[in-house]
Fold these 3 entries.
Entry 1:
Amino acid sequence: FGGFEGRALKQGDVLRAMSAGTVPLDVGRGLVPPALTLPLLANGTQAVRVLPAAEASYFTDESVRSFYADEWKITAQSDRYGFRLAGEALVPNRPMELASHGIVPGVIQVPHNGQPIIQMRDAQPSGGYPKIGSVIEADLWRLGQAPVGSRIRFIETTWSEAVAALDETQAWLDECQRLLDLQRWAKARA
Amino acid sequence: MNMIDTKSKSMAESDTARLDATQADALQVDAPQPHAMQPRHAMAIEPQPEQTLAEQISELSQWLAETDIGLLELRTAKGRIRLLRNAGTGLVDNDPIDVDSRGDHGELLASEDEPTAHVVASSVGAFLRNHPLCDAPLTSPGDQVAVGQIVGLLRIGALLLPVEAPCDGTVVDCLVADGTAVGYGTPLFTLTHD
């Protein structure tokens, strides 16, 4: 059920990008990968910025420190629904039982085993695990492009930096749109 | 954004401006591309019957001198000429003119059987030999390439444009170092025809 022919993708698989009869895409050009244009690394590791969430202060100081200082491995149990990470377990000051509440993509939940789960694009609408933080919207694409098995780091950020990062991402998209429009226009006139 | 990005972005804009210029339209620079010779443009440079070849070249040189075009390659039914800007003086010099001519009365003859071909830049940009995420160059001297194969890339800001082989052949030489800012029509590779 699900996947490609009921399994995960493997090297050599050929996927049909479009259904039969659709107009071919306007191709013949590409973009410099945004990871190169808008790099975000911490000690050489791919990083994403995080806003502390409601229950951040419920975790031990040591856990919060290691959350931002350590590397986290993206496990094979990761998909568009959520990324399950592996690292030094995060420990709450006391056991927490929360009522289910609304969550959004980017929210980092910490279940009882202390291994964080980041809600991704197909996030569930609600959950009851405590939240240590939330990956800012402007950096979700960085997570989306991080391969399973790779390692990431978290950088604590602020609301205003998160908004500025969103502006930066939008500026990159606008610039790409401008260059693509210019190139299509030049090609049409050629 | 580094220096190259900024530079190539402004170059992209100046290229647009140049596309608007009548001269650039009339002087087709980019020979191997399919759009290189359109009837309207061919009309603009149709030699006048009373003009000698020398007069025609002189007139083309004068047009070229008023532009920032580095290479003019002109193909007609009668043959082909290439005019290269003299990099030292910034003027179009008669010296580097390379005329394929075998006929009498200065007639230019076609040179379709020429053993080598150039892959030229179809746009201004920073020439890349490999994709930014790959270490290996797209092609190296000695490689066999097929017509339309991507042999390099041009980077204009965030945009990557393919550099395609104009014919089947073998790569002889890469003429431009990776990352160099190149102009419209700059020769990038030499190929031998298969």
Entry 2:
Amino acid sequence: MASKRVLIIDDEETIQTVVQFGIRLAAGWDVITASSGPIGISTAQAEHPDVILLDVMMPEMDGISTFKILQSQPETEHIPVIFLTAKAQAAERRQFQDLGVSGVITKPFNSLDLPEQIAKILYWQLEV
Amino acid sequence: MKILLVEDDDALIAALTRSLTAQHYIVDAVKDGEKGWLYGSTFEYDLAILDLMLPKLDGIRLCQRFRSEGYTLPILLLTSQDSSTAKVQGLDAGADDFVVKPFDAAELIARIRALVRRGSANPLPLLTWGDLHLNPSTCEVTYGGQPLTLTTKEYDLLELLMRQTHHVFSSDEILDRLWSSEAFPAESTVRSHVRRLRQKLLAVGAPSDFISTLHGRGYYLKLPDQPDHAPLTGSSIARLPQRIAPETGRPVTTERATEQLNDQSLHSASHPTPRPAGYLNDREPSKADQQAQYLAFLNTTWLNNQPRCLEQATLLLDKAQQLQSQVATPVEPATASHSIADLSDLPNDQQEAHFAAHKLAGTLSIFGLTQAMQMARYLEERFKCPTLTIVDLQEMSALAAQLQSMIQEVHHIEAVQPQERLSQWLMINPETDWDAALTLAAHHQGVDLELVPSLDAAQTWLDRASAANSLPKLILLRLNALPTTAILTFLQTCAHRSPRLPVVLLGECDAWRDRLEILRCGGRWLPEPTLTPEQILASATRFLGDTLTDTKVMIVDDDPAWLQTLPQLLRPWGFCATTLAEPEQFWPVLQTVNPDVLILDVNLPQINGLELCQILRSDPRWRRLPILFLSILSDPATQNQAFTAGADDYLCKPVRGKDLATRILNRLQRIRDQAS
């Protein structure tokens, strides 16, 4: 599979760093980071990543508001978004699905498994 | 040659990477000083280029940090200040050279070449080995005056061998030095590059063993005119020292550093696990290696983050105590006290504590510190309550204090946390009437249910899942008629593919003959008419009892043929096997893999299997780990010795997959029985 570009939007820098390292290590994908919803939106517009990993709970603009803006912009509406969240309850998952989010990955996760999980959610063919 | 570039200007990163790559350098670029440190201390580089002004940790401090930790790699600083003060400061911090922005790329590359040359065993600008000449400035290579046309990687490989001609490079080392830290090619890639390079050298008249193989060790350039002379020095001696031990001021080689770490990890768990080499994972050769590398990275990152986490826990404790002092009299907690407020309505202290707890929980989760993370999460929720009582706050203070000491005690991240996954089931449901109800029921039961409408669709899905090594835990097949030949064939295929994967048929099937046929083909049967979707899923779980997918088996054997065969033999039973050929890597691999079962050979180099078994039996953490011996030695004396050392079982080679799987399953069943 051709290399992918992943944008991670999370206010926690350690998470950005570890996810970036893990994804690069496991799959060699390019990972760009943003530490807030507004920065994430402009990064997505400029960089056109293949997928966005979006933290649900962030100060200022939360994941849901960020997602809605991404969906409303012509440059970013087609980019699949996967929510990163603490243990999502069934009701919350349904709410996310209703919003049109491509998938949900719950924390804690092992960053090395992320490429496989993302590929599974988005039906990408991973090289095995 | 591999370069670490620490620079926060994207345009400059792009331009420099382009110029350096064109000169055959491999570049890892990061954008702040902390990451520079993480990469520099995790991977091996031939040179680092640091910008002076960097976020988080500036170039001078980063340079000082490398030097104070004993890293001797050449460091080149980039700066926009052309003042002698800045230069003196930089050189005093341990930098080797200084380039002022804006700079000429050609000059920068010439300086890099000079720096690399200075650190190399071959300090001349033109590299020469017998009739072979390599000019790093022009990237031209000739043998006996004849030019060689090489690919980038072939050139890189040749330059590496020529720069350290007395060094034997293992494939692992070559991968480390010539591929960026983002690429993870297999060892066979090195072999094919060496093969092609040898062919090209042969074509211009070089001897066929110009690049020689030292069996089991690696590759080196044979001394010209001394055809049978292997390098005078071993790899650990000839290797360019990368680190100076701070305590002694003496150089230590990378191998020695790894040994030291290994020794430490044998005695204490307070150091990052070194990257173990020389073992293979059944699923993917570099998987276990990646896990170890990731773990080492997590440990380095944790050391940087622990103080901040402690500060956050202290803040939570302070806030809980402050709020406690503001509540005058104890009040019984009211139901309303647990309702969630709009955060902006909360007092500032509470908002601050809420966000600190949220951030802390996030950080702890990435390190897999689940218990501490759950405590932080709980505090995060509690700080959201608008009417906290003194009882609540007392409890929160106690919890915050506990969290604080818990964080303080984490000196080492011991294992990469397994991904918490929903159990995945596949269901073939030809009629869509139940789809919605099934999906909902699956959600409630924590099952990730994949619904497909036909056997063909199921087959395609299973092929893909099998290729990705992620078969479901259970297959449900809803019958809308009597079982057909196609269904029975499907059952047989599934049984062949994965004998322990339960396939459950739902539907009316009154005839004994049909039920028997289903059973013979490996299927199970569940009568449908009396059951709701919830009941079906709940009933189906009982068929999961005997599946052992994800059971981790670690195999230690020095015979490569067995190491290849055993994982294949065990795969149909759903075992995930990790193989290890070098017992000296045993401890870090064991800790990384954390197996459910260990299979040991008796005769191993350096440490024999019996000794390993004895060590494990004397360690409280591994005392109960099931250990099976698999050896060519069939004499009763050795078997007796194994059982005396603490073995649970002993099998003689050759062994059939089924027999080995059965013995493993028996052992695991016994443990389950004891536990229940």
Entry 3:
Amino acid sequence: MKQAKLAIITCITKDKTLIKKLAQVYPQTNFLSKIEEKIKADILIIDEYTIRSNRPITSTATRLYISPKFYIQGTKKPLDFMHLQGMIDKALNNQKIVPNLLNHKTLRHFCYETFDVEQNICVISADLKTSEFIGVFEYNQEALEIMEAVLRWRTFSIDRLVFILERIPNFNGAFVWMQTFFRYKTIGTGQVLLNKKKPIKSTLKSIDHIFLTYKPIDSKKELTKESPQFSQTCVRLTRLKDKLLLKRFNATLNPESIERSIENMDTFLQSKKASQKARANIRVILTELLTNSLEHVHIGISYEQKQRLLKNARLEKFINKVLRLKQRSSLARIELFATTVNSKQMYYLKIADGGTGFEGSVFFDKKVPPERFHGRGIAMVRHISNGVFFCKKGGCVVVLLEKKGLI
Amino acid sequence: MKIICNHNLVTIEGLVDSTKSSEEIKQQIKAVAKETQSLVIDFKDSFAVTSSLIGYFLGLIQKDKKKIKIIARNQDLFELFEELELIAVFGVTRS
């Protein structure tokens, strides 16, 4: 897979009034620059509403603007994904795309004043002086389609997805988001912002039980906040309806007790005739996550400190010393639930350890250099599961697992 | 889990799915590494390893300047190394 970073920023809505509203919010917030700063992407795929902003885009990334009204020379053909792939390839190799004199201002003019129908996509190179138009698209959620296509190619990695989700009857971005993350584990980070105070019934219904923020939020507030919103790679799972608790127990955070807890879970899974592979996966997942809880929550070892301790072969001694000195023990609560995700039976393993959170990108960064002796645990859990989700403020991690072979 | 050591070849049969199994492997490899500069670690059955074991292997390469070659016979394990971008570091092969 190429090392190129690709980000997609999309607004899941067809509501023109909303698009205008978002465009009003956007210039005041440096929303896109925040994304750009954090991602340092080679390519950005930017959905329609961002084009309406007056703010010039300063990123050095090649951008693929997706415009609702872009129309080229009267052709109406479905988006040619092979063509798009070629465009991205060219952009990555710093090749000029078809010469065109469009700049940001004229782009906006073309998008919103000149043409009047259908979707289109405009590829703009980093210097804003060259562009390519890709044919009319037949489906409205083109950003998602592009994302899916890009992921299917498996030649690029998507670094981050940001969806702005609104009150949309009969369509749900979170659902697509979730499905995409299940299907393609190569996506680095995802985030959904919700901008209504009350949960949207149709939205909640269509996403079954997974909601991606703790509570629906005011996106304007969210966007204007100087918060580390975009540096966090974590999302929160809540509203798990129709869940069935299968097993719950506490583990004291010390090496012996962690081993016993894992055995406890394994005995339970064995009694339920779980397959050997499913049991082994859960043992690895619990080993990784409870070790993290022990080291980073109970002992309080930082990422850098762990590297130093490992380098000097002192980690085990250090942990034992701190455990001897600690007067209080900490507990992690482990729960295994059965649930349904879009009619698919799944399980989720929840571990709550009372931690205060962390810089998620550290853990989701799959490119931990070989000089680092640690930092791969979460990537491993993600590899053997159907998804790993963290509470935004720390303290809880949820691992989704398919039913296959489990119980 | 069973660990068989033969000169510089360490064969691991069964699953590596806990801290305990990882520690056992570390102890055996530590003993072998005293005698040789290059090691071949053959995971016959396991489809996963712990991150602590991976860290240990990296330590052997980085700190102790050992050469390590890993045989990941299980496809899932091979893909895990691939995902972690460690194929080249450990010269991971399928057989």
